[in-house]
């Protein structure tokens, strides 16, 4: 069995990995790079000949893990795509949204190769989606491989993937969280019988404070909301439409029920609403906290989204004493949170609360690290705005901390450890830690693009 990294660089980006054994080939994830555009955003599929993959596997429906799936399926038209049912249904919604985004970018940014796929193609692709339950091993067609999914605790439907062959095993974590979130329960991963471990290293540079608690972060957020309410201002929470929107909705509901924030309306964006419909659909059928709780019905502070009129996305109007949970979480140009912030951050009564990761090159990061009074340009087509709003950050990440991932690896003690989904400094931290904690029986590998790695 061999492993090849099909990402173009060693970083968080277009996640995609190839396993080869004789004539058997399977692919793990097929993402698009969030910071690139056009063909440069795709993985490099050059090492994978057309119509040779026995199966494609998807861990979860975030764009950096599914964005290139339709392009890969065009090259592998007969390959089944294995994933959990919630991941498949969310994948369909997210990819249809990608078509809309790429169509707009073709016109606005003259990216002529966009859209890379069509709505009709996505509808046809669904015939190849094959859903599998957690913890239920199954055969990979036309191969001697067995596979199973295991709850990753990251977002709804997320799963790590176990691949077994003739007594040897590989486990790929995908994105993982080892602690309970508001809706999503902590990962339930195997710890024994794993020869090769392929692990994410997203938060390798982040050192969590010794006195951290999730409860404490929620109470800090509540205090910010109360103080902003008293100042007759509003709170903007940039969120990812998938995962973070739903976590924030339920967290705010909890805070309101506990009397920690005042009664005030909550508004969310259009794609966030579409994904929340799916979260509610599976409310009784997935492993989660608050089983049966339906966000769109049971969060009383939520203001129903207004129907869209005419072309383009509906406008979200500013109102005082309102919470806006708008995507994207990194405030990418052209998104609702980006355009809304441009008319929001000059007001000293308002506050922006960051609750997840922001890439250092993103508009969200620029705002997050700006000083009061500084002029901020959030988008090329919008004027710079002087920052007077309060900016706060909260550690409510859906990714495990570096220490939690390291402890999992040290418990598994694999023969080979492959580190992926992390920037160079993050992987360097893990390498230094494992040099101290893992004995010489574990080979630590940082896969280069396309370089074949023999696993067993």
TrEMBL record:
Keywords per UniProt: Hydrolase
Ranges where the Metallo-beta-lactamase domain occurs: 13-217
SUPFAM superfamilies: Metallo-hydrolase/oxidoreductase
Domain annotation Beta-Casp: ranges: 245-367
Keyword Hydrolase: yes
Any one Pfam family match given in the protein's UniProt record, by short name: Lactamase_B
Protein name: MBL fold metallo-hydrolase
Cited PANTHER family: CLEAVAGE AND POLYADENYLATION SPECIFICITY FACTOR FAMILY MEMBER, INTEGRATOR COMPLEX SUBUNIT 11
């Amino acid at each position: 069995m061999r492993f090849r990294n099909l990402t173009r660089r060693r970083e968080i980006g277009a996640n995609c990995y190839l396993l080869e054994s004789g004539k058997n080939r399977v692919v793990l994830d097929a993402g698009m790079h969030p910071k690139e555009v056009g063909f440069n955003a795709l993985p490099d599929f050059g090492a994978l000949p057309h119509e040779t993959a026995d199966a494609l596997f998807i861990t979860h429906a975030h764009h950096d893990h599914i964005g290139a799936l339709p392009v890969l399926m065009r090259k592998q038209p007969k390959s089944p795509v294995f994933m959990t049912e919630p991941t498949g249904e969310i994948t369909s919604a997210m990819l249809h949204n990608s078509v809309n985004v790429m169509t707009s970018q073709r016109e606005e940014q003259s990216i002529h190769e966009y859209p890379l796929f069509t709505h009709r193609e996505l509808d046809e692709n669904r015939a190849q989606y094959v859903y599998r339950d957690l913890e239920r091993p199954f055969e990979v067609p036309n191969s001697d491989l067995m596979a199973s999914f295991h709850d990753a605790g990251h977002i709804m439907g997320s799963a790590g993937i176990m691949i077994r062959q003739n007594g040897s095993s590989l486990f790929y974590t995908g994105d993982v969280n080892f602690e309970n979130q508001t809706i999503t329960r902590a990962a339930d991963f195997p710890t024994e019988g794993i020869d090769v471990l392929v692990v994410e290293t997203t938060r390798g540079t982040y050192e969590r404070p010794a006195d951290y608690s999730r409860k404490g972060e929620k109470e800090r957020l509540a205090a910010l909301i109360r103080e902003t309410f008293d100042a007759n201002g509003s709170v903007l929470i940039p969120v990812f439409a998938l995962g973070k929107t739903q976590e924030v909705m339920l967290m705010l509901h909890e805070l309101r029920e506990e009397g920690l924030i005042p009664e005030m309306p909550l508004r969310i964006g259009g794609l966030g609403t579409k994904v929340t419909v799916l979260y509610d659909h599976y409310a009784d059928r997935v492993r989660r906290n608050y089983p049966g709780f339906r966000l769109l019905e049971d969060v009383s502070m939520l203001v129903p989204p207004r129907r869209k009129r005419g072309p383009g996305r509906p406008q979200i109007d500013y109102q005082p004493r309102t919470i806006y949970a708008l995507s994207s979480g990194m405030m990418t140009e052209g998104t609702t949170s980006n355009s809304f912030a441009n008319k929001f951050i000059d007001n000293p009564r308002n506050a922006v609360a960051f609750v997840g990761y922001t890439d250092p090159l993103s508009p969200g990061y620029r705002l997050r690290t700006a000083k009061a009074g500084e002029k901020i340009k959030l988008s090329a087509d919008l004027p710079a705005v002087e920052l007077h709003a309060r900016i706060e950050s909260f550690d409510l990440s859906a990714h495990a901390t570096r220490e939690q991932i390291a402890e999992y690896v040290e418990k598994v003690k694999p023969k080979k450890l492959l580190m992926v989904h992390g920037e160079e400094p993050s992987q360097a931290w893990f390498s230094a830690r494992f040099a101290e904690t893992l004995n010489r029986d574990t080979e630590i590998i940082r896969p280069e693009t396309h370089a074949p790695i023999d696993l067993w």
